[in-house]
Design a protein that fits this description.
Layout: H1 11-25, E1 29-31, E2 37-39, E3 55-60, E4 67-72, E5 79-80, E6 89-95, E7 102-107, E8 120-126, E9 134-141, E10 149-153, E11 156-160, E12 166-170, E13 176-178
Antiparallel strand pairs: 1-2, 3-4, 4-5, 6-7, 7-8, 8-9, 10-11, 11-12, 12-13
Length: 186
Amino acid sequence: MLMGMRPTVSIATLLAIALIACACQAERTETAADGSIIDENQGTDGWRSALGNGFVVWESNRSGSWRLWRRDLDGSPVRQLTPDEGPRIHCCPHISPDGQWVAYLSLPADQKGYPRGGALGSLRLIRPDGTGDHLLLPEARNYFENRAVVWSSSDELVFIDRDRRTALLNLDSGEVTILTKTASED
């Protein structure tokens, strides 16, 4: 969310909150083959073991600049994912299906919201541990406010190009295929 925009909560954020809340309150027991009760709430991991090794990523200006942030589902501390890039704005994160990458937009600092037709910025890719940050495309647009890409597979992204057309980027070859002939209005 950029300055001047109304607060929104994504479905992924709500799902993560619900998952954590349920994990905190639910009693998880199962019966072992010998008939004994296994209680996942006991032990050093407690309820966190039930959440697995996942993570969530979101945009926030908690550091004074809009950056992407990450928190592991094991309850470890929040940490900044994207590097400081001067006054640029990092937004619209989307995790790859295999969990190996996060695609995001880096917008010019003078961006004051999500304009109709999308804000123009550079499309970037970063590893979930903050390494490997690199430019994919110098120009791509967001759509429906805080979205910029959809992963069609672990090596292909659907995005909106400079001319507001829907396109497919193959990460292995770098080839861009235009999927629509006319520009999108939003």
